[in-house]
Design a protein that fits this description.
By secondary structure, this protein is an alpha+beta fold. It has 7 helices and 17 strands. The strands form 2 sheets. Strands 1, 2, 9, 10, 11, 12, 13, 14, 15, 16 and 17 form an 11-stranded antiparallel beta sheet that branches. A 6-stranded antiparallel β-barrel has the order 3-4-7-6-5-8. The longest helix is centred in the N-terminal third of the chain and has 51 residues.
Length: 413
């Protein structure tokens, strides 16, 4: 009897099919309600984790540079050159190192400077330095370049040479051999007003600051779904020197660079990496980026006129087509949220990672709405005008950076 009663109790404690179906429907409903929130949270965490990772890699690069006496840093690689989107995003970082300066093989080695003059005695831009062949590193570099002009060697075009006791800087533009196996360096001024005339036909001491190279270390990549938006990154409050549109000076013409995509990969324009180098005390010493010089992209020195700002955002949502870039004609970028609101520059999930140029400190700032009075932010103008479009984007960049920094300083981030 007791066993029969237990069986009846166990049977009554179960669920009917209807009850199970109702419970399953409730669970499904709750899941469908919670899923978008969970997805958004995970997506925001991707950007946040990537910004934290990016900041830590920069800090490690700075620490390495201090430990080695300066010259080290970080290389930020664009995704690729096949289209505007890849040229405008970066997800990979590498460490950089700089070889020790070269001043010849012996104490007080010198080179013979020759400055070009026209018949009227006016100084030309031609500047050369002849170095005896026993300067073995220069000789080896000249032979390597002669055998393969595209090969990187001990000393390369683009390296900086300091001349004389005061270290007047010039850029090495060519390295070649003479008939007597001496080395001939072609040089050009870095500063327009530099006067090398006093060095003409003089033997002067030199010091070559060699270009940085990637360190032997595994690269680091951001979390999947996040990227560095280079269209909004640059130096100072308004700078966007890393943007392909700014490099080309073209924001609207889809038939010209950087919007065209070459069918042949050999014709693809590589917009290159961005190099941030630190000095011996951890300060930002140099910033290098690809710039167009005489129709060719070259790694050029950028003046460090302010802090360096990078915008970490969701990947794949950059607005790189001309008609997508803050395209409205009114004074407020938020006037058409359906279009402009999805660009990382105006996305509240984005995070600014800033390198302070004076001391190399790295800080992050959450995106903050910069538009208190939306109607008066930016003067309206034609979105098809290249100068207006460039100015408009730089204005929004400046407003967004300023708002984020002020919020961080006030403790709102």
């Amino acid at each position: 009897m007791f066993v029969a009663k237990m069986k009846r109790t166990l049977l009554r404690s179960g669920f009917t099919l209807v009850e199970l179906m109702i419970a399953l429907a409730i669970i499904t409903l709750l899941t469908s309600i919670a899923l978008p929130t969970v997805k958004n949270t995970l997506r925001e965490q991707q950007v946040s984790r990537s910004a934290t990772l990016f900041q830590s890699v920069i800090e490690e690069a700075r620490a390495r540079s201090i430990a080695t006496g300066g010259g080290g840093g970080i290389i930020i690689d664009r995704i690729g050159g096949r289209g505007p989107l890849g040229r405008s995003q970066a997800i990979r970082m590498r460490f950089a190192t700089t070889p020790a300066p070269y001043s010849g093989e012996g104490l007080g080695d010198r080179g013979l400077i020759s400055v070009g003059f026209n018949p009227a005695g006016v100084t030309l831009d031609t500047l050369t330095m002849l170095v005896p062949g026993e300067a073995s590193q220069l000789l080896r570099s000249a032979r390597d370049i002669d055998a393969n002009p595209n090969k990187r060697t001990l000393i390369n075009p683009g390296d900086i040479i300091q001349l004389g006791d005061n270290g007047m800087p010039a850029e090495i533009t060519g390295i070649g051999l003479t008939a007597t196996s001496d080395v001939m360096l072609a040089l050009q001024r870095i500063e327009p007003n530099s006067n090398f005339r006093r060095f003409h036909n003089q033997q002067v001491q030199y010091r070559i600051l060699r270009s940085p190279t990637p360190a032997i270390a595994m690269p680091t990549e951001l979390s999947q779904g996040a990227a560095i938006d280079l269209t909004s990154s640059g130096i100072g409050r308004y700078g966007n020197e890393f943007s392909p549109m700014e490099i080309e000076g073209n924001y609207i013409d889809t038939t010209a660079l950087p919007f065209v995509v070459a069918a042949n990969r050999s014709q693809v324009v590589d917009y290159g990496s961005i190099w941030i180098l630190f000095g011996a005390r951890g300060e930002v010493s140099r910033v290098l980026s690809s710039q167009r010089v005489g129709g060719a992209l070259q790694l050029q020195e950028l003046p460090v006129l302010g802090d360096i700002h990078f915008l970490v955002s969701r990947s794949g949502e950059l607005k790189v087509e001309p008609n997508d870039q803050l395209e409205d004609t009114d004074g407020s970028p938020f006037a058409d949220d359906a279009d402009d609101g999805t660009t990382p520059l105006l996305n509240n999930e984005s995070i600014w990672v800033t390198i302070k140029s004076r001391n190399g400190e790295v800080v992050s700032s959450s995106w903050t709405n910069p538009f208190v009075n939306q109607g008066q932010m930016i003067p309206p103008g034609p979105p098809t005008d290249n100068v207006y479009q460039s100015s408009r984007i730089r204005s929004v960049i400046g407003a967004a950076r300023t708002a984020a920094v002020e919020a961080r300083d006030l403790g709102s981030n």
